[in-house]
Amino acid sequence: MQTITIAARKGGVGKTTLATHLSVIAAGPKRPVLLFDTDPQRSLKWWWDLREGDTPALVECEARELAKILPAAEQEGVAWAIVDTPPHAENSIAEAMRVADLVLVPTRPGPFDLAAVATTLDLAQRVGKVPLAVINHAPPRTGTGEPAIVAEARETLVRMGAIVAEAVISQRVAMSHAVIGGQTVNEYEPDGRAAAEVQALWVELQQRLKG
Ligand SMILES: Nc1ncnc2c1ncn2[C@@H]1O[C@H](COP(=O)(O)OP(=O)(O)OP(=O)(O)O)[C@@H](O)[C@H]1O
Ligand SMILES: [Mg+2]
């Protein structure tokens, strides 16, 4: 079993949105996925309640319970655990990071957002993890290269010592439409650009976990 914890000490950067998307894309007939909502806001649960069907399965718990629940889930044959975290509860975020094989840190590309990533990187370092930053809410590509704000954000993050995913998730209305309907973009608009970006992120995460 592999555990991905999505964490950022800043609100509204896309933690829950990425948790929904990665959990659906990770799930397959022989790959049961467990989604963990450790945020008292319960946004993930809100989305999950809107879904038709009950996959991926959702567990609402405190982050400190993860260390007990995850080994039991692995025994039960769960292939992926995706953990959503609250933005401000330092101890909870640290607990959720500690149990992760990969810590994913979404950020918007704006300057204040990037400054806030530093505190998340610090926390990850304190629990002995090397997180992967991912730029979300990016302006969609128009030409061949990355939009300037994305390229600059990438440079800033690298200067801060972060490892940054090649994959970038753009700000797209399809993302909101999908989530409001209890879906993900890969279900709502499977051939769309948003779905392709999420798929690319998923491929990259799997590669990084392998090696
Ligand atoms: N790529 C995107 N394109 C469009 N809208 C997005 C995208 N990512 C996130 N959003 C929207 O931005 C808002 C914040 O996203 P989300 O709730 O996932 O962030 P969060 O980091 O989990 O926030 P919190 O810290 O409050 O839990 C939501 O309304 C969500 O639908
Ligand atoms: Mg959230």
Brief write-up:
Helices cover 46% and strands 15% of the residues. It contains nine helices and seven strands; from the N terminus they run βαβαβαβαβαβαβααα.
Q: Quote the beta fraction.
A: 5-15%
* Total DSSP helices: 9
Strand order of the largest sheet: 3-2-4-1-5-6-7
In CATH, the topology is named Rossmann fold
Arithmetic mean of pLDDT: 96
Count of domains = 1
**Uncertain segments:** none
Rg from alpha-carbon coordinates: 16 Å
| Helix content percent band | 40-55%
> Class in CATH?
Alpha Beta
What's the topology here?
Blueprint: E1 2-6, H1 15-26, E2 33-37, H2 43-50, E3 57-60, H3 66-75, E4 80-84, H4 90-98, E5 102-107, H5 111-126, E6 132-135, H6 148-159, E7 163-164, H7 173-180, H8 185-188, H9 193-210
Parallel strand pairs: 1-4, 1-5, 2-3, 2-4, 5-6, 6-7
Helix pairs in contact: 1-2
This protein binds adenosine-5'-triphosphate and magnesium ion (MG).
Magnesium ion is lined by residues 15-16, 39, 43, 84.
Give the tags:
binds magnesium ion; 9 helices; globular; Rossmann fold; single chain; binds adenosine-5'-triphosphate; alpha/beta; 7 strands; 211 residues
Structure explained in plain terms:
With 211 residues, the chain is of the alpha/beta class. It has one domain (2-210): Rossmann fold (3-Layer(aba) Sandwich), CATH 3.40.50. Helix content is 46%, strand content 15%. It has helices spanning 15-26, 43-50, 66-75, 90-98, 111-126, 148-159, 173-180, 185-188, 193-210; strands spanning 2-6, 33-37, 57-60, 80-84, 102-107, 132-135, 163-164. Strands 3-2-4-1-5-6-7 form a 7-stranded parallel sheet, with helices on both faces. It is globular and about 45 Å long. The two termini are 15 Å apart. The mean pLDDT is 96. The structure holds adenosine-5'-triphosphate (ATP) and magnesium ion (MG).
